[in-house]
Amino acid sequence: MMYTKQRDKFLKAEKALQRALDRLQAARNGDLPSDITTARTAAAACERAAAEEWELLEEQRRQHWEARAAEAQKALEDLALPFLAEVIQCRRNSGRMGLMVAPVQILQHLGTLPLPPVTVAIDGVPAEPLASAALDQAEEDV
Prior knowledge:
With 142 residues, this protein is mainly α. The protein contains four helices and no strands. The two termini are 33 Å apart.
């Protein structure tokens, strides 16, 4: 799975960032300006690398859920279109053209109904973006 591989790359970059932040903090505690500059430069480079890996990870997450939505939409179309055609034909057969006959009217009506609860299998890809304490810390410390 592409998401898992990208997550592993990000976690590796995040660990490198955390180590760089720890070295920066140690340099600040040692109060040596040259060490602080070197550590800050290294931490900034690690932050950029981790942020880049996080962006790629987030893109993988989005693509996964967009693909799942497309699959669900295709399944909906395959299942719903025959029923929609039947509803339309039965309404026409009734001779009462004032009833909802156009697909748009029927779909608008469906949109007013409450949706049932849905359980979506996660499949190893979270629904929300992955949080990163190291990136958050780097935003403030670097």
